[in-house]
Amino acid sequence: MFKSRNLTILIFSLLLTLVLSYPAAAEPRQVILTWQDDPHTTMTITFRTDSSDPGYLYYAPEKDAENYEKFQTEPFTFPETEAWIHTVELRDLKPDSRYRVVLGNENKELDPFYFKTAPTDPREITFLLGADSNRAEPETQREVNQLAASLEPEFVIFSGDLINEPLNEEEWDRWFDDWHELMITDNNRRIPIIPAIGNHEVNGMYHQTPDEAVYYLNRFALPDNRRYYYLEYGPMGIITLDSGHATPVSEQTGWLEQTLKENQDQPWLIAQQHVACWGGRGDIQVRSSSPARAISEQIRREWVPLFERYGVDLVNEGHEHTCKITVPMANTGQLRHRLEGMARIAIARANRTYDPEENYSPWMNPTLQKLSQGHWKEAGFNSMIEGVLGFFYQQALYGKQGGNLSLDMVLNSFGDSSFYTKFWHEIGDQPDFEHLTDPEKGVIYVGDGGWGGNPLNAPRPASENWYLEEVHQKYHVFLATLSSDWDEMNITPVFLDGSTGETHTIEK
What we know:
Structural class: alpha+beta
CATH superfamily of the largest domain: Metallo-dependent phosphatases
Number of helices: 12
Radius of gyration: 27 Å
Helix content: 25-40%
């Protein structure tokens, strides 16, 4: 009798749990705002449920709340998920206006929220920049979300690594649940996101195809191919790039140049990609086992000259889990061409002076050994540039001895060396290289990812890198404020501990 009674209680409890949990599972949640088109006149609203039942969405101008329009959603799903995704794109909105939204389904209607469209006439605009939110400490991400919402930005530019495991639905659910719960202001305005894809959004991380980024590409409704795209917000043209995760860097270079050419009339140009080309850790040796380092070099070779040539003002980066702001950088794209020219001179000289009776291998060449370590003074050279030319010459002799001499061989051997890292650390301080910074025309790089990404890494001191203006080992967001006349932008790192960094001003 006792066992039978316990069994009855257990069955009743299980049935009650199923009855209570089923409607909740099918309720709408994870509301997120993005743009597929013009932020001045559109808004895309996405939410999920755990059933295929249709949902609905009402919206109306805040000042005309009785004049609602209604959409019925037709959810879709994809094989890797249990979720059903509902997406509505609202069009023909008025610029610089607030709209009230109510959404739901047969199980529940969510509390109303608001959103704001982009302005066409000058007024102050605030937005945030960040990256790298969820790794080993999800609670830290929640705290940074709360900090971000308290700053009441109009939108967030987020350069990748939202989660850790790209195919882990639990992690994706946690990220969307947290964004839904926390990225909303005190007056119930939801904050849109402009995301870039990072290595942790892609199964395989680097050099993959869009098929390996199923959660990112299905959960975010974005323009065009969703991996790289262009949006305008007020006077700002915002370019999002894929740093070699689901799209090759080189595949985007032509598109990037064409996009920059077509939008030269934009007063402000902002770009973002996940992998940092000018990292706060100061680690820019690229020819190594890390794919990200090789991608950094490729971005510096292909994208950075375009940033500099077409007047990009600000670039948001991530990946390195530090906080950095660079000096306004200019003309760095010319350095690659200068290195190639120096390598060609060295190769021509090696072809003239090569002696087949000599052994030029690094093991028998003390000069090359010192240069490989970046010790150009100890190798007897008067300047670092002379040392680089000497390195190219010695490496060209070794290449000729081995029968594999080529321009790529010489340049790649430089990229493999410690001298390459030293070169980038010190080139800005060398005579005749002051033009690598330009307060009026230079590009400022911010970010490196501190939106809860764990562990935080110790940055290289700014004093040891000519291109670093400010570095920190702190969780943070960057608060950007565009002045009311749109001719000045102030950028301030805001830290989770309640402090702030220096405010950096860009003027037009």
